[in-house]
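In these records, each integer encodes one residue's backbone shape. Here is one protein:

___
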Amino acid sequence: MSEGKAQHNFMTLQFAAKSENESFARVAVAAFISQMDPNMDELSDLKTVVSEAVTNCIIHGYDSDPDGVVKIEASIDGDMITLCIEDSGHGIEDLEMAKQPLYTSKPELERSGMGFTIMENFMDEFEVVSEPGSGTSIKMKKRIESKKALYN
């Protein structure tokens, strides 16, 4: 591929909605993104949003039912990483309320209610689509400012 042209790459990952798979998802996405040569802050931000989104799928989407499936799609287009993390769980009754900082539907689990806020602040683009009874999909994008990403 000639210098300056965008390179497209993608991966799809599915796994059981078990809390022990959250770290696996974070590491798998970080390994995929490493080809873009992100700096430590970019990599840390991406690992954090994956952790937040996957944890939401497990705890809120499936009520910690390990029979649920979490799906991650990641793609690279030039210097842009796109992540889509989804479940087919309960969905969100009131999406606007769920996006409010410090709101949690599971206070008994000592949740901070900052997941959506963190994802939105760490990424360049952030969108949540949810339908009660049909699950939730979180789509996020982040531009990676590394030299390698700019010249692939």
